[in-house]
Amino acid sequence: MKPLTRIRSRTASLPFENIDTDRIIPARFLTTTERAGLGRYAFNDWRYLEGGAENPEFPLNKAQAKDCRILVAGRNFGCGSSREHAPWALLDYGIEAVISSEIADIFRSNSLKNGLLTIVIDEAAHAELLASPGIELVIDIGEGSISKPDGSTIPFELDRFARHCLLNGVDQLGFLLDAEADISAWESRRAANPYSMESAA
Amino acid sequence: MKPRTIIDKIWDAHQVRAESADTPGILYVDLHLIHEVTTPQAFTELHSRGLKVRCPERVLATLDHSTPTLPADAQGRRPYVTAEAERQVLQLETNCAEFGIELNGWNSEHRGIVHVMGPEIGATQPGMTIVCGDSHTATHGAFGALAFGIGTTEVGHVLATQCLLQRKPKSFAIHVDGKLRPGVSAKDLILHIIGRIGVGGGTGHVIEYRGPAIEALSMEERMTVCNMSIEAGARAGLIAPDQVTFDWLKGRPRTPRGADWERAVAAWRTLVSDPGANYDSEVRIDASAIGPTISYGTHPGMVTPIAAVIPSARNAQESKALAYMQFDGGQALTGQKVDVVFVGSCTNSRLSDLRDAAAVMRGHKVADGVRMLIVPGSVLIKREAEAEGLDEVFLTAGAEWREAGCSMCIGMNGDIAQPGQLVVSTSNRNFEGRQGPGVRTVLASPRVAAVAAIAGVITDPDAFQERAA
Fold first, then answer.
1. Residue A1 in domain
2. CA quadruple B117, B122, B127, B129: dihedral positive or negative?
3. How far apart are CA A126 and CA A131, in angstroms?
4. Shortest CB distance from B157 goes to which of A33, A173, A196?
């Protein structure tokens, strides 16, 4: 994973609530055994009309949304399935950050593990951003702030470990592999009392 | 000691390292279920790093999503939807062989939907931590296990270390008082609950379903309830294990035997939330007020009693959903023409679900112009249903009786409907395009689905059975 410190981009808006992972990438594209190249399927059934032409009504097909790397989406973005193909597709499509007032748990977890920044902000700030597609934002991950063109900023919370991993491009599997001694010790204690619901730590 | 919820108890018992402000905790995983769709990239990662599977005996695989539900031909060739789908299945077979993982594959009677298989062989047990690269993993919470869906990167973490990096979720108690009315199912109950708390209502939480109406449910019904926890946004949903749980599990292939069984049950009996334990959220539901319930929109929170009229849109989102469904607010749901009926999925493909559907269909025919697919959850369930003659009931009625798998719930294997068609489905998601591009999905119980198949239109099952009687 590449370190990610700052994102500067105009925004694109998808002002719809509960955009589920079937919308982000329909299930028929999940028979792949690769993680690369899924951007062409991002929002497939929304982005294209029957026959394959671009749907002019899809907000990300508008000229001003081209090359936007920050997506502002309605509440509860990424709900539904656990498919990691959703963040893979968004990243490959060119999205680096998703901002919403609520982001589904598994999607958020999957995104952060792949370097797709998920940001939850309060409803008022969210409503304003959602209604102003095309504005240029600067997201500072270390600071936990979004700067708007008028100089004002929106603060956001980010789990400290997720922030550390994004800023330094840390691979979380490496962190777990380093805990091998603790995992083995736990297994030994557990084996002595396999059904106990007391803490074995 | 501070009173603990069942969630606290399972969490504490599996914490290898506690979380801090700087780092998440390390949580040990007892059982890792895998299928063909969300694992290939994880095995590729292991290969590229030269890693082994740490505990192959804690991993259990099956084939369900990309698998055809029509039988193999005389030469043994299976009608996969694409060559890529077949390659995906082959890749799981190869990965399991290489890494020493038990696979309930094509020749196993336990092959089937991953969340049907785990309980069926007794691999799912109370007090366990269970994960799977699949959001409906909460199904296993019916046994008092902490079971949740993970992504493919995390599948790789568990394969390599048997652990996950996790922050502890919040707890949500859903108390269900009273008693479900006759003919009202667990599916009606969970659809009602999701409608009440909303599709994001459980985000960040693990739900504990509790109260007299929950205790009165069979294991199959408890699985239906826990299965759809994710549809309310929850990480997991669970129910304290009790005698119903122990009786259901006893003697299944992977359960402990003899003195070990007694020890296990004694420990499992402690898996209840202590009196006075604190929950982050709580809600109370009256079971007796719930009737047959179905969805009318494009997410599982848009539900209504079947006899009610379709609620009017309150905002642009709901207008868009109604437009997609070709419904108008104020219109009756009953009487809407049905094109396809699907009975199956990890929500409703167990033997009791098939019996519910068969009880309605016995002596009736599927209406002209309606296609009905019935897809059992596992090979064993298929055999059990056939031993009872349920297949005859379905086939005589004109329904299709298929091989086990996820089928039309997700449509990855090509079992889909046509654009614009209305599907009454016992599955869990009515998202736009879930059952094929442009397909309109109405979520319902097996009983409501079977009545719709016979009547050819959405029909209140209580009114239908009065007419039939």
1. no
2. negative
3. 9
4. A173
Name the residue facing A160 among B15, B21, B429 (closest C-beta): B21
Q: What is the CATH number of the domain that holds A126?
A: 3.20.19.10
Tell me whether residues A160 and B17 touch, CB distance under 8 A: no
Residues of chain B with Cβ-Cβ distance to A79 below 8 Å are: 199-200, 233, 299
Do A59 and A153 reside in the same domain of the chain? yes
Cα gap A182→B364, rounded to integer Å: 62
Do A21 and A102 share a domain, yes or no?
yes
Average pLDDT, chain B: 97
The phi, psi pair for A35, rounded to 5°, reads -110, -10
pLDDT of residue B255: 97
pTM of the model: 0.97
Q: Give the pair of three-digit tokens for residue B7.
A: 């969630």
Instruction: Check: CB of residue B425 under 8 Å from CB of residue B443.
Output: yes
Q: Are residues A19 and A116 in the same domain?
A: yes
pLDDT band at B145 (very low <50, low <70, confident <90, very high): very high
For residues A13 and A96, membership in a common domain is answered with yes
> Is A160–B22 a contact, with Cβ atoms under 8 angstroms apart?
yes
Of the partner residues B165, B431, B433, the one whose CB lies closest to the CB of residue A175: B165
Contact yes or no for B318/B209 (Cβ under 8 A): no
- Are A164 and A175 members of one domain? no
In this structure, are A130 and A72 located in the same domain? Answer: yes
- The verdict on a CB contact (< 8 Å) between A173 and B160 is yes
Q: What's the number of domains chain A is made of?
A: 2
Separation between Cα atoms, residue B143 and residue B322, nearest integer Å: 37
All residues of chain B having their beta carbon less than 8 Å from the beta carbon of residue A181 are none
Residue A14 shares a structural domain with residue A76: yes
Strand, helix or coil for residue B214: helix
For residue A168, which amino acid is it? N
pLDDT band of residue A199 (cuts 50, 70, 90) is: low
ipTM reported for the complex, 2 dp: 0.97
Phi-psi region of B96 (alpha: psi -120 to 50; beta: other; left: phi over 0): alpha
DSSP state, residue B308: S
Residue A181: give the domain boundaries. 171-201
> Which SS3 state, helix, strand or coil, does residue B174 take?
strand
**Mean pLDDT, rounded, for A85-110:** 98
B448 CB-side CA count, 13 A: 30
Indicate yes or no: CB of A31 within 8 angstroms of CB of B84.
yes
The residue ranges of DSSP E strands in B143-268, in sequence order, are 146-149, 163-166, 170-177, 205-210, 236-238
Sole residue written with tokens 């994710």: B230
Nearest Cα to Cα of residue B458 among B312, B447, B467, B347: B447
- Contacts for B408 with CB less than 8 Å, ≥ 6 apart: B340, B342, B344, B345, B373, B375, B415, B416, B417, B423, B425, B427, B435
- CA B110 centroid distance within chain: 17
- Which pLDDT does position B21 carry in this prediction? 95
Average pLDDT (B428-434) is 97
> Do A179 and B160 make contact, defined as CB atoms within 8 angstroms?
no
Residues A120 and A194 in one domain: no
Q: What is the pLDDT of residues B395-420, one digit of tens each?
A: 999 999 999 999 999 999 999 999 99
